[in-house]
Specification:
By secondary structure, the chain is of the alpha+beta class. The protein has three helices and twelve strands, in the order ααβββββββββαβββ.
């Protein structure tokens, strides 16, 4: 076996080891294990849920009160997720600069019953359908620069000679979006929604858009 072949094998093995190590950290992390547990919860219709039962329900979002306004696209929504990345390092890797997620109270309907989904800090899987990419020579739109400033960042690069290479991503859940909600439900007395005074209240641990 020649020197070149041995070197190639060593380099390949090193990259494989790094990949396996990174995959293991992600797969066996507490958050990943919990997410897989939640996804195994039984799917139930809203009316079948028992008090304090961990469940998965699917329905379409209906706004209550005032919806959120997504910061980049200015769309109305009940939930948004924004990720801003910057190219950094010797290998020009995309590195998170800002990560923001917000959710407000909303309803979901399965066609027969409603559930009140409480907002807060919730893990989610949302398709990021709005993406804005900027090179070092692009002039950044004022609205995006303002968003950076609100989060203590700027588009200006080293010594102010060039802009940073940035990528903005945004995803939302809006009225009519079909979602899977994972969490614990409890029946409460609420204003009349379905012709009775009992409504399922869910404090979700995870929300996922149901894609076509």
């Amino acid at each position: 076996m020649d020197t070149l072949t041995i070197s190639t094998i060593i380099v390949f093995s090193a990259h494989a080891a790094v990949f396996i190590f990174s995959f293991s950290l992600d797969y066996f992390s507490k958050s990943a294990i919990e997410l897989r547990r939640l996804k195994r919860l039984p799917l139930k219709s809203i009316s079948e849920v028992k008090d304090n039962e961990e469940i998965k329900i699917i329905g379409n979002i209906e706004h209550v009160n005032s919806p959120l306004i997504a910061p980049l696209s200015k769309r109305q929504c009940s939930h948004y997720y924004v990720l801003v990345e910057e190219v950094r390092g010797r290998h020009s890797a995309w590195t998170p600069m800002i990560e923001e997620e917000k959710c407000v109270d909303h309803l979901i309907s399965d066609g027969h019953s409603h559930a009140v989904v409480r907002g807060g800090t919730i893990k989610s899987h949302i398709e990021q359908d709005k993406i804005y990419s900027l090179s070092a020579l692009d002039k950044i739109p004022e609205s995006l620069e303002q968003y950076l400033l609100e989060h203590g960042q700027t588009s200006e690069g080293f010594l102010g000679l060039f802009n940073k290479k940035l990528r903005f991503k945004e995803g939302i859940l809006n009225e009519g979006s079909q979602v899977s909600v994972f969490g614990k439900g409890k029946w409460i007395t609420e204003e009349n929604i379905d012709g009775n005074n009992k409504v399922l209240e869910v404090y979700p641990q995870y929300i996922s858009a149901v894609l076509d």
